[in-house]
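Fig. S4 source data, part A: sequence.
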Amino acid sequence: MGFVEGKIEEEKLFGDVVFPKTLLPSNKGEDLAIAIAKERHRFSEELKEHGAILFRGFDVGSADDFSRVVEAFGWDEMDFIGATTRLKMADRVFTANEAPIDQFINFHHEMSLLKEFPSKIFFYCFEPAPVGGETSIVPSNIIAEKMEEQMPKVMEKVTDVGLILCLSTPKDEDEDSGQVISKTWKWLFKTDDKLEAEKRVRKKVSCTSVKFNDDGSAEFTYGPVNPVREFGGKKAWFLPILGYSANEKEVIGINFGDGSDVPREAIDAYKGYWRRIVSI
């Protein structure tokens, strides 16, 4: 029982480390949840080395099956908090996003703008979309490495003075807007009282300030902060400097901590590196 190493056409090689590492069933009809439970000790270390693990060839036919797989790892559950629309399908299982499948979603870490964020995230494809709808994964340590190699002066300034990021929530909740961030601050913090909402922001969100606008929108400002953090001895580009989607209404406002503009070529380089990794 257990796993054998596999290979997929889309995998990448960074130095001598494959991304993602692919594991296949060693026997036909292998139950993935049972196999994981028997070897769960290995996966934390393999994730540290490879950044992602792909389990392929197993019979996981429903959200409930996938919930069993997630539980088998024995890792603590973390509730989802965010301004996107997700539907709960089973215990610990939600849809990835209810935005239209033609909406391109930029590289980001899950819940990275909160004080508490998940250390691991699972993805499961029940039914592939005919066109679009893919969820790409990116090794963010490679993004940090490439930016330091190709944009050393920019990265030196990022280290010295940090970045200031500003992200807005919409004034009205509109599921048909095509935006990834579709929820208002009132929905997000479960109150329409600004003072109470600010208390909840201070408790959960890592922003330095929040402004509730008269039109119903809100602006969250982060920084000055370094978007690169270290996890397990590796530097990772952790905080997003683009909006969560290609929709111009969701672009994150970004400046250096001293108020000066971030060069356009640095933004283009950042965008280009991760898009090339996922072969967009």
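Fig. S4 source data, part B ends here. The CA atoms of residues 207 and 222 lie 4 Å apart.
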